[in-house]
Amino acid sequence: MKNSELKKEAKMVLYRDGAGKAISLFIIPIVFLILTMAGTIMTDVQQVTTRLADGSSNSTGGNGFSIIVVILSIFIALVSVSCIFSLIQMFRDTKRIINAKSDMFQVFRKDVIFKVLFLYLWVWLFTSLWTILFVIPGLIKSLSYSQSLMILFDKIEDGTYTNSRDIITESRQLMKGWKNKYFYMLLSFVGWWILVELSFGLVGIYVIPFMSATNVAFYEHLRIGTL
């Protein structure tokens, strides 16, 4: 299946009920992206201005801010997972419509949230360990583990969840022979992300939902053998 076909299917599902609902589902990650990019730019400008004014290269007060950023990043990651879960449901149920208020927080249940967090932790740990050796092995492993969150969704839904490592193993097995195709699919979005950078995050309004839905389309065809 061509990447263009995956993208076409992603758009059909994503904008089935109109672009507004699709954007509303991803509104928190989108706003976070725009604010992060704007904040980065403002910080860089402020630091340059300060250094030009007093010749100082030091900055203070970063620790408290870093903790806030970490907490906020975890929150955004969980919301993003909720969005992915909602997209999977939309792919499988043609009558499923987006309800942003509930859909974007669906993993914030105690029977789900810790499963997601533990999976994130294990994926990060394994990927980091491989990256310590060389960058390329780390990249390969990140591709191997790329389907973990969507496999987690299925395990929770059908009541067969065991642990995070089993899910990572299943993702690795599922991606055998498909890592190149997935990598090239991700590469096809590079141009879009350049536009996101140039627009200070505004193009992310379109790109974030589009890329997320394309990832789900990839998984849906991969799991049933029609990729």
UniProtKB/TrEMBL annotation:
Which keywords annotate this record? Membrane, Transmembrane, Transmembrane helix
| Taxonomic superkingdom | Bacteria
The answer on whether this UniProt entry bears the keyword Lipid metabolism reads: no
Q: Which residues cross the membrane?
A: 21-43, 63-91, 112-140, 182-208
Q: Does the keyword Transmembrane apply?
A: yes
Q: What is this protein called?
A: Integral membrane protein
State the organism of origin. Lactococcus fujiensis JCM 16395
